[in-house]
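pasting for the record
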Amino acid sequence: MSHLRLRLQRAALVVACLAPVPYLVLKVLWLSGSTIGTTTAAGASEMHETRFVVGNLITVFLMVVAVAFAIALTRPAAHRVPAWLVFVLGAGATGLLAPILLGLPLGLVLQLIADGAVKTATDEGLAPWVFGAVYSGFALLGIALAVLLAQYVVARWGDLIAVAPQPPSTVATVAGALGMVPFGLANLYWGIFGPGSTGPQAMDLVAQRTVLVVTGLLSLAAFALPLVSQRAVGPRMAWLITWTGCCVVAFQGPTQILLANGGDVQPMIAFIALLSTPGSSLYGLGVLRGAGHLLWLSRAVDRWHLVFRSHR
């Protein structure tokens, strides 16, 4: 690894370890009974509800896992970590953080232009600084993990992503069409026209709706790219978009259910989520499987060519 890449890796690791600290401190305080950051009696009362306690425990666990994953990616023995474990943790981090990282900064700028104020949520039960601490931490963690994952993938699977993703099997393509296209179109609609009565409730602000638009675009782009020519973007960019979009669809469907406003899940969201997670998973795995077979065939041809030349 070059000196510049090593410095970048170290900087990303430091950011990944420090960015979640405010978020974790806030969550631990809430779990211990504190009402810091709440602005109303209703908001303070909600912190002690089972739904919020369980949610806080889960998110603290996920954040700790994310930091541990970042550390593991930089260890000398990182290349011996089972591929499936890297796949699962990388997919989770990508699916949960990418919409925030890609959509929220742009959404805040658009909201500032449109409304003259910056807000990340309509919930008046929490102070504005809470959202600033939470989402800035998410964004920084997302950037750091993106850098570390990119370096790791290029070093370990550079041959795999040197060839653009190819169309998967017919079954995987149909599954992707059923799971990713409705999800993408629905999020685009809710982001452009508002959630209305069918979409994610309390997602009315420009910043929030921009996240929905980005989520929808990633979903549709990830489904389309393996099926069309990718000369304009190149193999690695095509893989990045396909991977990110598939992960976002797989994880954002369940997330929209778990984070439903007041625990009231809209039927349309539940129906789309039931299709999106298995559909995007089958599609993404199908694309990866095809790439693995292509890489194996290429290496087999190379070995055969070397054997042939050695016997000439």
